[in-house]
Amino acid sequence: MYNLQNNFNPQETEFLSGDEPIKIIPNFTLNQKLVFLNGEYGPFQPSIPIEVPLWLALTLRRQEKCQITIPVWLSVEFLQDILKEEKSRKKLSKLHPYFSEISAQLFEHAPNDINDFEKVRTLVEDIWNVRASKIREGIKDITNTTYCLSISDLTVMERELLKPYATSALKNIWLIFNSGKPIKRPNFPNQPETNTSNSTNTNTIEEETIIEKEQETTKRTLRKFTTEDMETEQN
Amino acid sequence: METTNNITVLSSFIQAWTNEKNSPEIFPYETDLITEIRNHINTQQQIIDKNLEQIKEEETNNNDSQLMFLTNIMLMEVERLNYLLRSYLRMRLDKIEKYPVYILKNQQVRESLSKEEQQFLAGYFKLFEKHMKNSFLEKLPKPLQKIDDEEEGMVAKPDVNNYVACKINEDLGEVQFLEADTFNLTLKKDDSYIINYDHIKPFIQSNKVSLI
């Protein structure tokens, strides 16, 4: 059931990134306004910059009807700063959420609009690699008692690549962790879901004492995992 | 203002689409958003059809390339919206096909479906039941012929303990979640977590937390 996968594949994230605004400089005239669902764009005059959704900018660029103004975060200086920042600390730097998608699409369709195209491309690749190794390091910290994962600074592409692995791993950990508990029977039709601590009706006395013993002997400490927790825990 | 309202229509629909994709449960059908989007698509489609007719009539005219260009752009936008709508509806239909008995038995969940989806469910379940009966159920002894027996665990229910990625939209302070031991989590605005769906379910309805 393809439609029930819980993550976006790269084509879908690229589709989502299409709605991001970007500035272009058109070289054609259009006196009408383009009426889209999320706003009106136009009229278009040559050499007057205008902000449009990314999908429109790329279409126009493919037909050579405009020049795309590369966003600030895709310039050599900015990327070099980010790369330095990424290499110097364990925490992930803040990037545009659609960093990978937008840069890939601009490389493909508008390479001439980018200053120092080769340099920018290598920088983007380096940043991606540094972040990927950081994420891999962070994942190693998932233990048998992790109950949630903090993913605040991931870009959309990184998050969607991580999701299948992380969700199934955490789910399995949860299942193992809760395997000593009484089985919750489904409640139909309008009964409220009972909490595990209150579900005494399904237990016999013998089962209860066994579970209590298990919980005492295995001391479990639940930990929250973040990529910067490693630093703070060592302090 | 109209423009700002329209920005929220698209982004709220994309949020509803994302929620639907990530969660094991079926969310309430977004009737208002979908009606607005379909209205927009219909008006645009009418203009597109009118333009295409006009282009066909006038064979070679300088203004045509301008009109064709404009029509193509409008077509692209309509295509994008259609893709979103279709994907949203297909996801919901797949979920309906996966949990038909659960939805039929549960009045609350059934109200999340649109009228057309409820019809789909009724038709699908009828076919499913007929198929089961004809294949083998008729030949089993009477007590074993049920396909909606709750006690035997026959009813597939959406697993609310799946892990999902979510984003916090408001400062929620320290929240206590119940597990074997309770654990506390400080939920600040713009944080994202991969967490048990059951734990953040109450926050999703009020839009304090959204799935990403």
TrEMBL record, chain A:
The entry's keywords: DNA replication, Nucleus
Record flagged with keyword Cell membrane: no
Pfam families documented for this protein: PSF2_N, Sld5
Regions of compositional bias (Basic and acidic residues) in chain numbering: 210-219
Domain GINS subunit: 73-169
Comp. bias (Low complexity): 190-204
SUPFAM superfamilies: GINS helical bundle-like (SSF158573), PriA/YqbF domain (SSF160059)
Cited InterPro entries: GINS_A, GINS_bundle-like_dom_sf, GINS_Psf2, PSF2_N
Domain DNA replication complex GINS protein PSF2 N-terminal: from-to ranges: 9-68
Family membership: Belongs to the GINS2/PSF2 family.
Name of this protein: DNA replication complex GINS protein PSF2
Source organism of the structure: Anaeramoeba flamelloides
From TrEMBL, chain B:
Ranges where the DNA replication complex GINS protein SLD5 C-terminal domain occurs: 158-212
Domain GINS subunit per the UniProt entry, residue ranges: 48-135
CDD domains according to UniProt: GINS_A_Sld5, GINS_B_Sld5
Gene3D superfamilies named among the record's database cross-references: 1.20.58.1030
Family of this protein: Belongs to the GINS4/SLD5 family.
Pfam families listed in its UniProt record: Sld5, SLD5_C
GO cellular component, as recorded: GINS complex
Species the sequence originates in: Anaeramoeba flamelloides
Keywords from the UniProt entry: DNA replication, Nucleus
Name by which UniProt lists this protein: DNA replication complex GINS protein SLD5
Subcellular location: Nucleus
Function in brief: The GINS complex plays an essential role in the initiation of DNA replication.
GO terms, biological process: DNA-templated DNA replication; double-strand break repair via break-induced replication
Residue intervals passing through the bilayer: none
Top-level taxonomic group: Eukaryota
InterPro entries for the chain: GINS_A, GINS_bundle-like_dom_sf, GINS_Sld5, SLD5_C, Sld5_GINS_A
